[in-house]
Amino acid sequence: MKMSHEEYIEKQRKRAAEIASGMLNGSIHYLEGAIELSALRFEVGVPEDDKDFLVFSGIASEIDHLPIGAPKQYWSQEALNRHEPEIQESIKWAKEFSLSECKSIVARFNA
User: Fold this and answer.
1) 80 pLDDT exceeds 90?
2) Which domain of life is it from (predicted)?
């Protein structure tokens, strides 16, 4: 059965709420979640400049040089170890920068 546009948007909104909730409770790596929320920005039926999603696009842009998510498997252990302090600093910065938006996405789309 084919999904309607509205059903697709609702599914993506639920996914956004799941990701944001996982970021808040620690079950999803904060930076990986930020990257995924950035990718969902155009899939959830909100304006292009939506504050809650725009912040995650900014985070994703700032951390795109770090070994995070699926590409991490292609990095050497030495490189992973070398980047770990920056990853930890980036997590701290990203949380300070986006915690309220993360909570807002949960509140908006958690049905």
Assistant:
1) yes
2) Bacteria
